[in-house]
Design brief:
Distance between the termini: 37 Å
Oligomer: single chain
Order of helices and strands: EHEEEHEEEHEE
Number of strands: 9
Structural class: alpha/beta
Shape: globular
Radius of gyration: 14 Å
Strand content: 25-35%
Largest sheet: 5 strands, mixed
Strand order of the largest sheet: 6-2-3-5-8
Number of helices: 3
Length: 140
């Protein structure tokens, strides 16, 4: 998928795990907040992938206002490596406003030891169709 977008040469493959925000930040040599984590939720009969900054947390009130339901995380899949692009049908992709604070962010590339450095605009292009939302909060 990234080769189709002339970005395959930008994939970062690590010799260590990047399965969590902390591990990914260490592997990439960046602040944890610049890791673009992908969270998965049930929304109606679909899967919603929400990509947020590494230090962000779901704000239940904002989430309910956006999706008109309580946040119900999907469970049962391994942590790490969930990339927000080239996803299966039935997934809706949302980019949280917390990502816009950074010039570049680091989403996973489909394995527990990879990432790619992208601007928020590049991330939006790769995730299209996607929607920008404001459903997270940052630490106080």
């Amino acid at each position: 998928y990234l080769a189709e977008h002339d970005m395959a040469d930008r994939i970062l493959e690590f010799k260590v795990s990047s399965a969590t925000v902390e591990l990914a930040a260490q592997a990439a040599g960046v602040e944890p907040e610049r890791i673009a984590k992908t969270l998965s939720f049930h929304v109606s009969d679909r899967v919603a992938l929400i990509v947020a900054a590494g230090d962000a947390r779901i704000d239940n009130q904002k989430y309910k206002a956006q999706f008109h339901t309580k946040a119900k995380k999907l469970i049962g899949h391994a942590v790490g490596g969930v990339c927000p692009f080239a996803v299966n049908d039935g997934c809706d992709i949302y980019l949280d406003a917390t990502l816009r604070r950074f010039e570049t962010v680091f989403p996973a590339c489909g394995s527990a030891n990879s990432a790619i450095e992208l601007t928020p605009n590049e991330l939006e292009e790769l995730c299209a169709p996607c929607t920008w939302v404001d459903v997270c909060k940052l630490p106080a």
